Amino acid sequence: MLEPTTVCSGLIERRWIRSLLRFQNVLEMTCCELVVFILLLICVLTVITERAPPQSQSDYYCYINGNVLKDVPCRFFAIVFDAGSTGTRLHLYRYIHNTGRNGLPFRVEEEIFHEVKPGLSSYSHNPSGASESIRSLIQIAQETIPPFMWDKTPITLKATAGLRLLPGDMADNILDAVEQEVLVDFESAPECFQSDDAKHPYFPDASLTVAAFDLGGGSTQLTFWPVDQRIFEHHREYERDVEFFGHQMRLVHTQLSRQWTGCGSSQYVIAYSE
């Protein structure tokens, strides 16, 4: 027969064990809830960080009343639409102004690329459809560029042989519709939008390249590096003066190009199918 003292000690010990188990369960639940809370907090902070602009508005202002502040580092954007025969591509660049005296006056911080199909030339009888086809690209650009920089961002459209092959005024009607779409969405002045039907290929390291053969959808280009560079002394059309933040720069195309319109891969397929 057990003594009363032994029985009481056993009851107390069991109560302590049950209390410890309950406390352990509560502690485990609290730890789990804490982990879940931390994970949710990380997700929220990540979303906020991604949506928040990485710089303040003052980082983008480089000029006052049209005068460039050369000694103030700032950011700006440039949009290039590559209107090929098989699709339209968006090249969106974010630059930062280099205040140093050495090197280029700016450097690329970020490049965004997106593409939609088909090309603008597919809307030869529906110019409004051409403008609608690039709205998704415009939306991507608007989501990237701060609204206060929309009317200060230069926009260039480079079209290739796909539009040049269209008869009559079809190409001009498409370009006019696209221009109106871009200017309205970006609240830009007409001089902020430039369109061009020329395509100038380039070499990353021309000294190591003999020639480049570019087979596009609607045309073919052959570009090569002349042995005698003095040939450009008699062809000033390859030079162009530009200004970046007060720095005068002369851009010289030091390659010669020859283009054959209608000799692209898509044109070959059409001719073969006929």
Describe the fold and architecture.
The chain crosses the membrane at residues 26-48. GO terms for molecular function: ATP binding; hydrolase activity. With 274 residues, the protein is α+β, with helices and mostly antiparallel strands. It folds into two domains: 60-199, 2-Layer Sandwich (Nucleotidyltransferase, domain 5); 201-274, no CATH class. The chain has helices spanning 4-51, 127-133, 135-144, 161-164, 170-186, 265-273, and strands at residues 63-64, 67-68, 75-83, 88-97, 106-116, 155-159, 193-196, 211-215, 219-224, 239-244, 247-252, 256-261. A five-stranded mixed β-sheet has the order 5-4-3-6-7. A three-stranded antiparallel β-sheet has the order 8-9-12. Strand 1 and strand 2 (67-68) form a beta hairpin. Helix 2 (127-133) packs across helix 5. The longest helix has 48 residues, at 4-51.
CA-based shape: globular
* Poorly predicted spans: 4-9, 47-54, 197-206
Separate helix tally: 6
Mean pLDDT: 69
Strand order of the largest sheet: 5-4-3-6-7
At the first level of CATH, the class of the largest domain is: Alpha Beta
Helix content: 25-40%
The count of β-strands is 12
Major sheet description:
5 strands, mixed
Total number of distinct structural domains: 2
Strand content: 25-35%
| CATH H-level superfamily title of the largest domain | ATPase, nucleotide binding domain
Whole-number radius of gyration? Answer: 31 Å
CATH architecture of the largest domain: 2-Layer Sandwich
Query: CATH topology of the largest domain, which one?
Result: Nucleotidyltransferase, domain 5
Structural class estimated from helices and strands: alpha+beta
Cα separation of the termini: 110 Å
The ordered H/E elements are HEEEEEHHEHHEEEEEEH
